[in-house]
Structures are given as C-alpha cells and as structure tokens.
Design a protein that fits this description.
There is one protein chain. This protein is an all-alpha fold and 318 residues long. The chain has one domain. The protein is 73% helix and 3% strand. Strand 1 and strand 2 form a beta hairpin. Helix 4 runs parallel beside helix 7. About 3% of the residues have low confidence.
C-alpha cells in the first residue's frame, strides 16, 4: 500500500488544482485579464515547483518504488529538469493553439473551457504514451538513439516550418469524419442545423487541440525520458507542466507573435535533449547542466525577443 501512496497524492493534488481552476478561478467563464492571467501562471508554476518538496519526501522516506535507485536530491533535480523541459516545449504548443482558435474563430470567453477539457484529455493520453515509451526504452536496446534521432529531426524541421493558418481553414481530415457547423450556439458542442444534429466549431477546436497534443507528446515524452526513466517523475513533471499551459496561454496570448525568438529557445532545447538521448549509452550529461542549459536557453530567447519588441516600438514612434 505504501508504494502507491505517492501516486494517490499526485492524482488528488492534480484533481484539486483542476477543480479549483474550473470552479473558483473561472467560475463565471469570463475573459481573463492580463493581471489575473499573471496570477494564475505564478500560482500553477509555484505548485509545480513546490511539488518537488513532496518528491524529496517520497524518495527520502522510500514511499515509492525507486526502480532507478535515485537519491532524494537527484530525484528532485530530475523532476525540476523534466518540469522545465516540458514547460519550455509547451511554449511551441501555444503558437499552435492560438492558430487553432483563430482558424475556428473561437471567442476568448470559450477558450478557457476548451483548454481545460484539453488538459484532462492530455493527462490521460500522456499516461498511455509515457508507459509505452518506458516499455520501449526498457525492452529495446538502442531505443534511446531512435528517440534522439527523432527529436533531432523534429528540431531541424521546426526551423524550416512555421505554423500557418488561414482565417477560414479547418482541418479537412476531421471534416470528412464528422459533420461540423461553423456556428458556436452559445458554447455548445452539438447543435441542430436544418433539423439535423451537427458538431459545432467549439467541438472541432477541442478535437484538433487533443490531436495536436498527441503530436507534441511524441516530442516531449522522448525529451523527458532523456532526463530520467523513473515513471513517477516523468508523469508528475508532465502533469504539472500541462496544468500550467492554460494559464500560460492567456498570459502570453497577446504577446506570442512578438516573442518570436522563443522558438529558437525551444529548438536549442530539443537539440540538446536529442544529443543527450543519442549519447546516453556512452556518457552521462549531469542533471545540473541540463537544468542550467534549459534555463539559459529560455532566458536568452525572452531577452532577445524583448529587445526586438523595443526596437519595433522605437521604429513605430519615429
């Protein structure tokens, strides 16, 4: 019974945060102000960081099945590094989410509900994919190299392709399977058009967000597995990073196009973790170095983007 206690605490903790988010922070489903979005971002990031205290307790008290023989300090370092990796890779996801909302013409007042439901789906799907990834890493020799090469391919492809969308475009593949209407009908997922039941644009956006998260999980899960193969740390860092994604979106929604250099930060992080995976069987890159590299990459991306914004504003004032 002791060995499942940390899992129970993690699940209860996550559910409590989600319920607090949905029924307290967004009880009236109104548009979030920038100030409120900042508070919520700090709140979820703080909870993600504070969970590291519980991580230390779990491994120090031997409450969890420590299959990778981590010391409490190393478990905390792995968790924080994994959390930073997942959170930084989520930034690229934000650009895609913004494109999806624009494509389906989803008003801001409905975006929170879609992101909330998207998070619930992501938590379930990530659990399945994480277990699959761990099994592959354990059973197939050299799988870390395969994951590393895949991430390397993803990183190089990301530099070549930018997220493109047209105002009236909707995913053609989904339209072939399901009948969609462009109307929202007060935020419903199903409505009637000419006496026939059809899915609204809101449901179309939700399905697209879920499918997009699955695609992004193909990148993020190999990335976190480059840090640790401990299932509890992998899953807990994923959960807290995903929960912070919604508030982070509303905080950055008006600035995504301005912080263009964050994409290069994500590229450098993907490049780093791909190299770490490929070389993992030959030598080990220290966790502290991984954490420092990720932090510096994000800081540089934000700093250069800020300088770029100032230059643009200066040119507009002339």
């Amino acid at each position: 019974m002791e060995k499942i206690t940390p899992w129970i605490i993690l699940i209860v903790y996550a559910i409590t945060l989600l319920l607090f988010d949905f029924f307290v922070l967004h009880k009236k489903d109104k548009q979030s102000s920038t100030k409120k979005a900042v508070f919520e971002t700090i709140f979820f990031v703080a909870n993600g960081l504070l969970f590291s205290i519980l991580i230390y307790w779990f491994y120090h008290s031997e409450l969890i099945e420590n299959t990778t023989h981590l010391s409490p300090n190393k478990a905390v370092l792995n968790y924080l590094t994994g959390y930073m990796v997942e959170l930084s890779l989520s930034i690229d996801n934000l650009f895609v989410i913004a494109a999806i909302f624009a494509s389906f013409k989803i008003p801001i007042k409905h975006q929170h509900k879609l992101l909330f439901l998207g998070i619930l789906g992501a938590i379930v799907f990530r659990a399945i994919l994480i277990n699959l990834g761990l099994v592959l890493m354990d059973k197939i020799h050299g799988m870390s190299i395969v994951f590393g090469v895949f991430l390397l391919f993803t990183a190089t492809k990301m530099l070549k392709n930018e997220v493109e969308h047209k105002e009236n475009d909707q995913p053609k593949g989904i339209n072939k399977l399901l009948r969609f209407s462009k109307i929202l009908d007060g935020g419903k997922f199903i409505t009637k058009v000419d006496g026939k039941k059809v899915f609204t644009a809101l449901f179309g956006a939700l399905i697209t967000i879920e499918l997009t998260d699955l695609l992004f999980a193909l990148d993020s899960i190999p990335a976190i597995l480059s840090i640790t193969k401990d299932s509890f740390i992998v899953y807990s860092s994923n959960i807290f990073a995903i929960m912070g994604l919604r508030s982070l979106y509303f905080f950055l929604s008006n600035m995504l196009e301005k912080f263009v250099y964050l994409k290069y930060s994500v590229f450098s992080i993907l490049l780093f973790v791909s190299i770490k995976l490929i070389t993992s069987e030959y030598f080990e890159i220290p966790e502290w170095f991984s954490l420092v590299f990720i932090g510096i990459s994000l800081a540089v991306g934000i700093y250069i983007s800020t300088l770029n914004i100032k230059n643009i504003n200066s040119e507009n004032d002339i």
